Amino acid sequence: MINFKCDECSKPIQVSKEMAGKQGKCPHCESPMIVPAPMIFDLDETEATDGKQVSWVADLAKVDPPAQPTGPKPMPMADKAKLFIGTLLYWVFGLIFGLSTLAVIFQAPVAAIPLLLATILLLPPLCNTLMVKFQFDLQPSYRVIGAVGLGVVGMLLFSNHIQTEMITKNQAAELAAGQKMVEQKKADTDYLVANKPAITAQFQQLLDAKKVTEARDMLQKYNGLGDADVDAMFTKADVKAKEIARDEQGAVLKTKLAQLGNDDYAGQETTYKALLALYPGNKEYTDKLAAASQQIKKANEFQQRKMAGEAWSYQTSQDSMTQKPVTIASLGSTSRLSFDFPYGGLQQATLELRKHPRWGQDVILQIEKGQFICNSYAGCDVSVRFGSGKPKRFSATEPSDNDSTYIFLRGYNSFVSEMRKVDKIYIEAQFYQEGNRTMEFAVDGLDWK
To answer: Could you give the number of structural domains in the chain?
Structure first.
């Protein structure tokens, strides 16, 4: 028998195989049709019923004969292509599901059941045979949807089976690993107890050689065994590692310190602070940090004094007669003088060192306005205190032009020698109608030969 479906209404038809290739009409919808050739899956048996073959359409006897005597009407090419492509897709996906069934049936039989059903729905011979045998009709769209749904269910069941299997294997592996770890821990504990003196000696030898990493690696297998001596050795290794790292950083800082200039006090201060962070309480570094900070403070103060005219300034000119240089170092006072009318207002005194090719070396004290009491006949005396020492008397004289705003102090060498030893000096002189006044000078930083 030949089992096939009508292309129009998709209802099953069964005829004898002698009808293959003949043209007729569908007994259900009366659409023109041609009986296809038999396939290997078609039933070939016949059942006797009063000596006749059983068929839904008895030998197509009730089908109208062809309208044209010239031969059967050919099926349109579009319909043939549609039928061919549909059948081909059924076979392709049916075979895919069939192979999937074979692949999973031995690993997950439950997952193979929906895949097998999907295969039956898609393979045309199997599906057509079932529809004829059980006399039901299944539309192509339902076949496809059912096959896809069954395929998804099968894949989900197979995936769940694989995951369950992997979890079971992992649990077994973890259990075996845990058992092995327990056994290894017991073996390490027994070995540690039996060989602790040798282990301790080897550890100390590595630590003395500053091989901290090797020492820790040697102890690592005994870590976590609960042995207090091993824990103490780990702590000792950590302390040693910190000491080595500290000494290495200290060596780098000391090298940097050696490369700094003697007057780079800012760099020295920063470096000594870093060294003290590594070696807290070190007296040498503390003292040197204080000295560098003091020098920075003095430098800042000197810069401020320089801006205020209270630091040494230098100038060189040429004597018009001898054509030799005249050098002068001048310094403004840090204190200010204030006189009554007609010399009112704050003013700054000036201390000047001069080297002249004709007049020699002089110490000159000058004010902006006012009058020193110092005549050209008797001269005068001024009192000078160098730093925190006792006041000393220096004789002075007025200039040859009788200008009362400055005087010359005698004893240049003695004055300059004492001044180089201190940072500040105080000069007291007598002024007209103002009495004795003291002028303060910050004399550090003198660059004078």
So the answer is: 3
The answer to whether position 240 is within a domain reads no
Helix (H, G, I), strand (E, B) or coil at 311: coil
Domain range holding 381? 313-442
Residue 344 lies in a domain: yes
- CA dihedral in degrees (45, 50, 52, 53; nearest 10)? -40
Q: Is the pLDDT of residue 68 over 80?
A: no
Do 70 and 125 lie in one domain? The reply is: yes
* pLDDT (tens digit per residue) in 147-203: 889 889 989 998 898 898 899 888 888 888 888 888 878 887 888 788 888 888 888
Are 36 and 94 part of one and the same domain?
yes
The model carries a pTM of 0.46
Mind listing the pLDDT tens digit for each residue in 300-335? 888 888 888 899 999 999 999 999 999 999 999 999
Closest CA to 241 of 207, 276, 267: 207
- 291 and 386 both lie in a single domain: no
Tell me: do 128 and 66 sit in the same domain: yes
Q: Is the residue at 225 inside a domain?
A: no
Q: In this predicted structure, which of 77-81, 207-211, 352-356 has the lowest mean pLDDT?
A: 77-81
| Coil, helix or strand at residue 229 | helix
Phi-psi region at 288: left, alpha or beta (left = phi > 0; alpha = psi -120 to 50) = alpha
H helices within 105-139, ranges in order? 109-122, 124-134
